[in-house]
Amino acid sequence: ILRSLTALEAIMIAGGVNSATASLSKVFVIRQQGGKYVRTVLDLEEVLLGRDDTPFYLMPLDLVYVPSRIGRP
Question: Which helix (H) or strand (E) is 42 found in, with range?
């Protein structure tokens, strides 16, 4: 049985993140809709802290990008 993955599940399946350098408060999902690329910003830090339980389900061909917070105050 196949089911949709959430963005957080996909990140964990891919090996997780380095909590010292990853910026989970601004995870980008890039999705093609209507011939355009649409970027959605997710705050997965809130999900991990239990303050947000709204899952963001991925669609085929979605790209998930976790930026680094190195160099940011």
Answer: strand 36-42
Dihedral sign for Cα atoms in the order 11, 47, 28, 7: positive
pTM of the model: 0.82
The answer to whether residue 72 scores a pLDDT higher than 80 is: no
Residue 26 and residue 41: Cα distance in Å, rounded? 6
Task: Convert the pLDDT of each residue in 21-55 to its tens digit.
Answer: 899 999 999 999 999 999 999 999 999 899 998 89
What tokens were used for 38? 């649409």
Helix, coil or strand: residue 67: coil
pLDDT of 10 above 80: yes
Tokens of 60: 């085929």
3-state helix, strand, coil in the chain (%, to 5): 20, 30, 50
